[in-house]
Description:
The protein is an alpha/beta fold. 45% of the residues lie in helices and 7% in strands. Strand 3 (57-59), helix 3 and strand 4 form a beta-alpha-beta unit.
Amino acid sequence: VLVLKHCGLNDDAAAEIGAFLAENQTLQELDLEHNNISSVGAIALADGLRANTGLRQINMLHQQGASAFGEVCLERYQEMLGTNVTLTKILWRLQSRKSFALTKLITRNVEIWRRIAAGRGDYVDMLPDHLRESPPRVLTDKCPPQSCFGPPTLESQQHDTKAATSDSPSTNIDEKDQEACAPQKMTPKSVLEDHSLCFFDSDVRESRSER
């Protein structure tokens, strides 16, 4: 955990932190609350997070002298999450009615790590398309991948080989695999328990005003 609250950090400092995140793969939480980071600095952080496989949570709430992060910032974080599958929580003030799209990507990452924690190799089917053939090592080191719908992985090939050489009739997917491949629906409660929400201050204010 790296806490940099009330440090007077500006966009230039955020750019330096972004470069640090691109190289560092061990830091899991970063707290940048109460600084002077604008959308420019937030975008620089997103650029660094593209190559990051360690950070799980980032806090950018209460930036002094800066307006809420907007649409351009949202788009850059969406692009970043097209590659980053480890970030599971963002705390910030985002002024956008498209915030649900970002929350969906964060929730995807939470579900990937939930499956890994349960020893389920079918997390590979939740990865972005370009990562499914060769999942990131940060995932495979913790749980071997096993695709239920895509091309056979090394683990599934080994399973098929063993089944073919056994005396019993072979099947493509056994009962255990079928259970692992069953679609999983996350309820709002499970999302909250997994801390998957992006917190958008502006969305809360807008919902109250609409009432």
